[in-house]
Write a structure and sequence with these properties.
The protein has 10 helices and no strands. It is mainly α and 260 residues long.
Length: 260
């Protein structure tokens, strides 16, 4: 169990770092479950559990400054405990979201620490101490590695009871505060995106999407489907109007040539 806990801690840390520095998709639950199953010697079960967890976390994503539940850590622990206990998908589905929410707290703390490291790197860059700038980046990776291992290692080594106890220790006020913050931060994220896009005519689409997600009860996937349909309709009419305009311009040019 010690070896498995160490290997899964390393795997979760690498995938979390990939999530923060690339988004190539390997930190998504489907890949996480597959790789976890491969480490534990049950690839088929890992794929099955990963696919099921992918459906749960499909609509979760970070918008702007919002920090979503840590689906990577949640998927590693849920898949591993499901395989190790032999209880299959049921226990994985039960554990994935609570563990992801618990890991979200440490994710916020690690991001705060890394913000300080960024300012430290800025100071070294101004002094042209580029070796220390590089060191600051490696320290950020170390913070992420520690943050992930602190959760994954005891969860795998001590089992389900350790995970449940870890989540139960978190004060209710802290969980409530994170819930409220999670409701506010997406709006802040939308505001940040609006300031970056100097295209005023696109602003209503942001507010429509936000209203559908917040007040309409739509998931991110639902809002995306509506957005795709709206985009296709607008693209169709824009092309149609462009063709009509070109035809009118050509007709006007022909008339002008005859007049000459």
């Amino acid at each position: 169990m010690l070896l498995q806990a160490v290997l899964l801690s390393i795997l979760a840390s690498i995938l979390s770092i990939e999530w923060m520095n690339g988004h190539f998709g390997f930190a998504r639950p489907l890949w996480v479950g597959t790789l976890t199953g491969l480490v534990l010697g049950d690839l088929q079960q890992g794929i099955i559990i990963g696919a099921s967890l992918q459906l749960i976390f499909m609509g979760m994503s970070g918008v702007g400054a919002a920090v979503p539940p840590d689906q990577t850590i949640g998927s590693v622990i849920a898949t591993a405990l499901a395989i190790l206990t032999g209880q299959g998908i049921e226990i994985a589905l039960t554990l994935a979201v609570p563990v992801a929410l618990g890991a979200q707290i440490l994710d916020i703390f690690s991001r705060t620490i890394n913000s300080g490291l960024i300012h430290m790197a800025d100071g070294y860059a101004q002094k042209r101490e580029y070796g220390k700038v590089e060191m600051s980046h490696y320290l950020g990776i170390l913070v992420q590695f520690i943050r992930t291992s602190v959760i994954v290692f005891p969860a795998i080594y001590f089992g389900v009871d350790a995970v449940t106890a870890m989540i139960s220790v978190i004060p209710t006020a802290v969980l409530r505060g994170l819930e409220v913050s999670g409701g506010i931060l997406p709006a802040v994220g939308f505001g940040m995106l609006l300031t970056m896009l100097e295209v005023p005519y696109l602003f209503p689409f942001f507010f429509i999407g936000f209203a559908l997600a917040t007040f309409g009860g739509y998931s991110t996937v639902g809002v995306t489907l509506v957005a795709v349909c709206v985009a296709l309709v607008l693209d169709h009419y824009n092309k149609k109007n462009k063709v009509n305009t070109e035809v009118k311009n050509e007709s006007a040019s022909d008339l002008d040539s005859l007049m000459e």
